[in-house]
Amino acid sequence: MNGVHDLGGMHGFGPVERETDEPLFHAPWEGRVRSMMTLSVDRGYFSLDAFRLGIERMAPAAYLRAPYFERWLTSVEANLIERGFLGREELDARIAWLRDHPAAAPPPAAAAPAPPAAAPTSPPAPIAPRFAVGDPVVARNVHPSGHTRLPRYARGKRGVIDHHHGTHVFPDTNAHGLGEQPQPLYVVRFAAQERWGESAGPGAAGSLARWGRFLA
Predict the structure, then answer these.
(1) Exposed, middle or buried by CB within 10 Å (0-12, 13-18, 19+), for 203?
(2) Distance in angstroms (rounded) separating the CA atoms of residues 153 and 8
(3) Do the Cβ atoms of 78 and 55 come closer than 8 Å?
(4) I need a surface site. Which of 58, 66, 70, 143 has the fewest CB within 10 A?
(5) Is 35 helix (H, G, I), strand (E, B) or coil?
(6) DSSP alpha helix (H) spans, 57-181
(7) In a 3-state reduction of DSSP, which class is residue 163?
(8) Which neighbouring-strand residues pair with 168?
(9) 93-150: per-residue pLDDT in tens?
(10) Closest Cα partner for 81 from 133, 139, 73, 99?
(11) 118 contacts: CB under 8 Å, gap ≥ 6
(12) How far, in Å, CA of 29 to CA of 72, rounded?
């Protein structure tokens, strides 16, 4: 989808500030959110693609205001609620209680709900690639309404196949529970000026992983 999360090539957000010796987590709660996300995906409560979609659906102002792991927490909550593992009312009630009791100790860990039954997974069957290394391609100029791994700055741009990574799950359908629908995955090399125009440095280039459905 075309959302505020897709910032590549956009102006007006200021320089990227790098923190020297930045720690992995700036506060203990960030580490807990990281664990919540990992356990939820590993146990099959929702997929990694659905997790990304949850972040993309945040209201633009909330997305820009939220720090990194707050976006993660927002998506974990939304996915667990939508799939019936967590109730909005019980979550709101717990948050209200903790506001009134900020020094309360965490409750003992409860048994996790059973994940949805799933058939044993196996690697997708290989699909013959349409393109070979060195083939010129163009990224389709499309604007999907849901989750997509095709960023706006690459749409309609011309590049060259640099590598074929085999067959992989198609995130654009998997995020919405529409099946894995495996697709060939390629690395496409784009000249920087093709993507960024005259503002790109001379001779610069970059590569992106792209699913075959979005290449012509």
Answers:
(1) exposed
(2) 6
(3) no
(4) 143
(5) helix
(6) 60-65, 68-82, 88-100, 171-174
(7) strand
(8) 183
(9) 989 999 999 888 877 766 767 776 665 567 788 899 999 999 999 999 999 889 999 9
(10) 73
(11) 44
(12) 12
